[in-house]
Amino acid sequence: MYAMKRNPLYIIAIIAALLVTGCDSRSGRVKYLVGDDSLHGYFSLDARSVTIYASPEDKKAGRIECRLYDDEYGVFARMFRVLDDDAIEEAYRAKGPSRFSEEFIRNVMSSDDGEFSPAGDAVRPLAGLRVAIDPGHSAGSMEDAVREGKYILLFTPEGEKLNFYEAALNLATARVLKEMLERDGATVMLTRTKGEQVYPVPFDIWVKRNFRRAVKEKERDGFITSAAAKRLLTRSSDRQRLKFFNSEYEMPRRAALINRFRPHVTVLAHYDARDATPDYRIKYLLVKKIARSRGGAADRMKRINEVVDSISALDDNFCTAFVPGCFLRGELASMESRIEFLRLVVSTDLDRSIRFSKHVVEHFRKELDVPPSPETFPGSRLVGFRFGGVYARNLRMTRLVRGALCLGEPLQQNNLGEARRLAKIGEGRIPERVRETARAYHRAIRDYAAGYPGR
Q1: How far apart are CA 226 and CA 229, in angstroms?
Q2: pTM of the prediction?
Q3: Is the pLDDT of residue 140 over 90?
Q4: By Cβ atoms counted within 10 A, which residue in 235, 274, 354, 432 is the most buried?
Q5: Integer Cα distance of 181 and 128 in angstroms
Q6: Bridging pattern class, strands 265-269 and 320-324
Q7: pLDDT in tens, 397-434
Q8: What are the distances in angstroms from CA 378 to CA 48, 327, 328, 391?
Q9: What is the DSSP letter of 42?
Q10: How does strand 151-155 pair with strand 130-135?
């Protein structure tokens, strides 16, 4: 099916490849994508090709899973914009060390990839732009959020309880941003519109029916190690099982919805929270006050436990933006991961994500008056020197979603000032900070679209 022939169609492919790779940016991208030296056992670069191996043992034995030649980079990158997942995997499996066939190149290069072209319309500047928004997490109640471990319970020095959860903030941000973008003519899709998971089988049902088989399948296909599978099957907690479900089923489901939509840009909407140095004095004074208050013993003990379990306020406040990067040990063991890794090496998806994320951080700073993060994060690399606050990080959604994307965290939820403002979401109101965050994304998307990069 994939003959090793050349014809004039390769001229088209060569031009596309040159536009995709520029002055061969592969090595620069690999610097951000490789987070552990062991991953070099799965690929090799030379002046004219990228080669992928199914394992380090295969690399040593010279058994090639897929070799992509420099005049095929444009064809491979375009595959992800015009083919479905099954066809992409079929083409990858069939390729081996041979070249793409003339017929395959013709089909891919002649298919309309729906690329965006700014129309110069002052009233609807985003007409024709497709934007996907993924409101992170799934909780629809505080009980759900506690189960996910994604909530804020914080007491002010005066004893006021601030209690809200991130999934609600993410969803509200997505809804407000969608309205803003649609007024500008963009076509917008949300992965979820309610406080619930996207995967069609509820977790509580799934975990009873499918958990053991799912763990075994993910171990077999290289998504998790044998040690991780054993831990999950023998001594995992409810939260650990939920984390596995979210990573291996919920997130891939969301990514598949996004990729089928084929957006020109994607926002993965989140808010951050960091551990702060525990303020034991505040907790002690609040517990002492509760112990001396009126009311039943059970009620007082409940309030005391809330204080003990609460997070402390964070003095700092900063924003961050994350792009794909830092694959870690074992994370190229699955074919799916190797295909996405190769896409990120030879296409401009990572370059475009960095460009878009730079705009996001700039507008977080302007709209929210929050500086870029001054620190580094585990499993991440700072992107360049000029793009403060943008990191290539080992976050699975950023690797599964194709095209330009930004996983944004505009502020720290447990900064006391922010917590006071954001807690309004628990009263059924949209906090002004959510509207400001949506406005920052909106303006970043407008800036990115105005200078939309060609291939």
Answers
A1: 5
A2: 0.90
A3: yes
A4: 354
A5: 11
A6: unpaired
A7: 999 999 999 999 999 999 999 999 999 999 999 999 99
A8: 33, 12, 11, 11
A9: G
A10: unpaired
Chain centroid to Cα 281, Å, comes to: 38
The half-sphere exposure of 243 on its side-chain side, counting CA atoms within 13 A, is 11
Planar angle of CA 218, 223, 224, nearest 5 degrees: 80
128 closest CA partner among 454, 452, 444, 455: 452
CA distances from 290 to 149, 153, 294, 295 (A): 26, 17, 8, 9
Residue 317 in 3-state DSSP?
coil
Pair of tokens at residue 231: 């831990």
Question: How many CA atoms are closer than 13 Å to the CA of 98, on its beta-carbon side?
Answer: 15
As a whole number of angstroms, the longest Cα–Cα distance in the chain is 87
pLDDT at residue 219 tops 80: yes
How long is the chain? 455
- Kindly state the DSSP code that residue 266 receives in the 8-state scheme: E
- Tell me the Ramachandran region of residue 117: left when phi exceeds 0, alpha when psi lies from -120 to 50, beta otherwise: beta
Closest by Cα among 329, 330, 332, 353 to 341: 332
